[in-house]
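=== RUN LOG ===
request id: a7f3
mode: sequence -> structure
chains: 1
length: 124
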Amino acid sequence: MSVQKAFKFLIDQYDFKYGFNRFSEFNDFLGPFDAYSFYNDYGCFTILHAVQRNEMEYYISQEFSNRQDILFEIKISEQVFKIMKKNRVNPLNLFKRDNTLVAKFIADEINKNGVFFGIKVKRN
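=== RESULT ===
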């Protein structure tokens, strides 16, 4: 499932905005790297897709930006990995193209707490 489709609920139900960036390099590695960002007034959640390796990394930041130093402010990939492992989900699936497990976790967190990874969420 595509990133846009897996996280579309953030836009439809919670009034998040969507931003996309493509970077030719990241942390001295050559790309392409696609960055899918979902953001509101309280923060930005970004999925970085290393296209050639088909791996995902997860980040949060204060805001959406086209600048890597702002967009990739805090890496949360290990946090996501630990949460999924605690929930007894195969963590190796997290870093592949299918983000449905992460999207489900985020939806559950929003429903329980009104926040995910420190980003406050308001329902439409």
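=== NOTES ===
The longest helix spans residues 100-113.
The chain is about 30% helix and 35% strand.
=== END ===
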